[in-house]
Design brief:
This protein has two domains: 160 residues, Rossmann fold; 126 residues, 3-Layer(aba) Sandwich (Rossmann fold), CATH 3.40.50.920. Helix content is 35%, strand content 20%. It has eleven helices and 14 strands.
Length: 321
């Protein structure tokens, strides 16, 4: 059965994924002494990391603007038996600290949680600060698990689930308030397994992160036009839920992937790889940032420009039908 979601044709509540992520770490740290929180000069008034620092000063490290250092230190903590959450802004873990991620963390297969805030274009920083290559980079690194929660509550569930998940993880978290997707938390959440947010028979939209909310809104609005669209919340980009992809391809015949990421090497590429390797053919389209540097603009402007908002998804589905 599909998970119980909000009606996106009406008013949908919002919450801050980063805030929920940090709140859950603080909560769990009270009973899990192996949890550490590391950051890179991100302490500003109102940031919950200040609360963690005051409660657990021996398990908090601020390295300043030095992302390579935060990854290296986190690897050492992981090798010593800790579970470090190493947090940095935008593209700086996936780009600036790639060597340390590859060699210190992934090669040693340690349980470091590399947490990227301001994922995709949500930071609004233009071509140097928009993080639209991270999925592609992290997918190519052995041992790395990649998760992009679809809403703030799922961020909280991810943090808790990660405590017993083996090996390194890359957690991609958006900035500021975003729509809540699920009306309750009764749905099954397992790292590596997609969530069926809406059933449908004419086409399937597979989203990850904040794009799941756009996909769901598009599907609900298309329902009024007599078009039945399945929506999959592919919160885990690696390892991908192969069974969910193949089932959708066979049953609906159309797959559209939507991601706040370049179309090269991300969710769309992963879905195409597993479908065609399995010999399953269907109509297929990747929606995301084109093969170019992302431009400067607001999130709303860029999502419309790249066709990864509600209207862009609806237009694509209509054209394929």
């Amino acid at each position: 059965m599909p998970a119980l979601t909000y009606d996106f044709t009406g008013i949908v509540p919002t919450a801050d994924p980063k805030d929920e992520y940090e709140k859950k770490i603080i909560e769990l740290a009270a009973t899990h002494e192996e949890i550490y929180l590391l950051t890179c000069d991100l302490l500003v008034p109102g940031n919950r990391m200040l609360e963690f620092r005051d409660l657990y000063p021996d398990r908090f490290i601020d390295v300043g603007i030095a992302e390579a250092n935060v990854v290296g230190i986190a690897a050492g903590i992981g090798l010593a038996g800790g579970i470090p959450f190493a947090q940095a802004m935008g593209p700086f873990i996936s780009l600036r600290a790639t060597d340390q991620v590859h060699t210190d963390v992934a090669y040693n297969d340690v349980p470091v949680r590399l947490s990227e805030t301001h994922g995709g274009v949500t930071g609004g920083g233009g071509p140097t600060h928009n993080s639209v290559l991270d999925f592609a980079i992290m997918r190519g690194i052995p041992n790395m698990t990649i998760v992009a929660p679809s809403d703030a509550n799922q961020c909280s569930r991810l943090v808790e689930a990660s405590l017993t998940y083996p090996g390194p993880m890359f957690l991609r978290i958006g900035k500021l308030n975003s729509p809540l997707v699920y009306k309750n938390q009764d749905y099954d959440y397992t790292i590596g397994k997609a969530v069926l947010t809406k059933e449908g028979s004419d086409a399937t939209v597979i989203g990850t992160g904040i794009t799941v909310s756009h996909a769901l809104k598009a599907a609900q609005e298309l329902q009024a036009e007599g078009i039945s669209v399945r929506v999959l919340d592919m919160h885990t980009v690696k390892p991908l839920d192969v069974d969910a992809v193949l089932k959708a391809a066979k049953e609906t015949g159309i797959i559209v992937t939507v991601e706040d990421h370049t179309i090269n090497g991300g969710l769309g590429g992963a879905v195409a790889e597993v479908a065609f390797e399995a010999g399953v053919t269907c109509k297929f389209k990747r929606l995301g940032v084109p093969d170019m540097f992302s431009v400067l603009g607001s999130v709303k402007q860029l999502y419309a420009l790249y066709g990864i908002d509600t209207e862009g998804i609806k237009k694509q589905i209509r054209s394929m039908l």
